[in-house]
Design a protein that fits this description.
Elements: H1 3-15, H2 18-25, H3 29-43, E1 48-50, E2 55-57, H4 59-85, E3 92-96, H5 98-111, E4 124-128, H6 131-140, E5 145-148, E6 157-165, E7 167-172, E8 193-195, H7 202-214, E9 222-224, H8 228-238, E10 241-245, E11 257-261, E12 269-276, H9 282-296
Helix pairs in contact: 1-2, 1-3, 1-4, 2-3, 5-9
């Protein structure tokens, strides 16, 4: 019996869509598809019918989903409850996106009130994790606090906005647009635009794509690159334009690029701390408060002019 396979199947049963199920679980769609196929092989019967237009449960699949749903939910609840009860006897687990970890965690080492204390309740350990994976891990009780970009409201997840920042254009210092105090997406209509991976934050990506469509920027002008440092090098050497959350200006490793706020972006980018709604410990509250003070002290204005 493979619990992960059954979790993937239940997500597909709920969403009736493999990509949405994968996004919900923080997995790649092929991984979900293989998990369901493996479960079907072990059971010796089809669970879902897939066509190019729709996904639907077979009668056997609907019966199996109904049979396993409550026991699996009970297992997850038991795990969450036990983990929350153990918070006073272990290190807090702080998940972070790579960029926010670089920006905030070194400051948190000094700001956290328990720094240097030997008591377990005052210790924390970081783990790198992108936003969708953080949401799943916090919901499952595997992570105590997540440090991530903008997230939508989700049942069972408490989200604290630590700060709001502009979306920025990343430009070569010699770029004509660098002489402007701010730019618009319309200014970028004829340029090759670089973004970091869409899967890192589907919610932020959906807002950006809506803005790109509204600005009539051809999709062929938008290119995905693996990481921000790669994006910055492409900007510096090829004259492309990057689009990225503004706090990157504080940790940017390439000195020959500059940053200008995008004036017509539909929303500001939020840095958030997320935790399980049932986790009401003083240590978690203090950790989130320390993060909020750190983010509140960030001064990116000097980097954007």
């Amino acid at each position: 019996m493979n619990l992960r396979q059954m979790e993937c199947f239940l997500a597909v049963a709920d969403e009736l869509h493999f990509r949405r199920a994968a996004d919900r679980l923080g997995l790649a769609p092929p991984s979900v598809s293989e998990a369901v196929a493996g479960l079907e092989r072990s059971l010796g019967s089809r669970l879902v019918e897939r066509t190019s237009r729709r996904v639907q449960l077979t009668p056997f699949g609907a019966e199996f989903a109904a049979a396993i749903r409550q026991p699996i939910e009970a297992l997850h609840q038991a795990h969450r409850t036990a983990r929350l009860r153990s918070v006073h006897h272990r290190d807090l687990v702080v998940a972070h996106t790579p960029e926010l970890g670089q920006l905030i965690l070194p400051r948190l080492v000094d700001a956290w009130p328990g720094a240097g204390d030997d008591q377990a309740r005052d210790r924390w350990r970081p783990v790198s994790m992108h936003t969708p994976e953080q949401l799943a891990a916090v919901a499952d009780g595997e992570v105590d606090v997540g440090l991530c970009w903008s997230v939508p409201e989700q049942p069972g997840i408490t989200s604290t906005v630590l700060g709001e920042f502009p979306l920025v254009a990343v430009l070569r210092a010699s770029d004509p647009l660098a002489s402007c105090r701010e730019v618009t997406l319309a200014d970028l209509r004829t340029r090759q635009i670089l973004i970091t991976p869409r899967a890192d934050n589907p919610y932020l990506e959906s807002r950006l794509q809506a803005d790109i469509v509204r600005a009539s920027i051809p999709r062929t002008h938008v290119e995905e690159v693996g990481r921000y440092d790669e994006l910055a090098v492409h900007v510096a050497t090829r004259g492309h334009v990057g689009v990225h959350p503004g706090p990157i200006a504080l940790t940017n490793p390439v000195p020959s690029v500059v940053f200008r706020p995008i004036a017509d972006a539909s929303d500001r980018v939020r840095i958030c701390a997320i935790s399980h709604a049932e986790a009401h410990t003083e240590s978690i509250a203090a950790l989130v408060a320390a993060m909020q003070l750190i983010v509140g002290s960030l001064d990116i204005d000097a980097k954007l002019t």
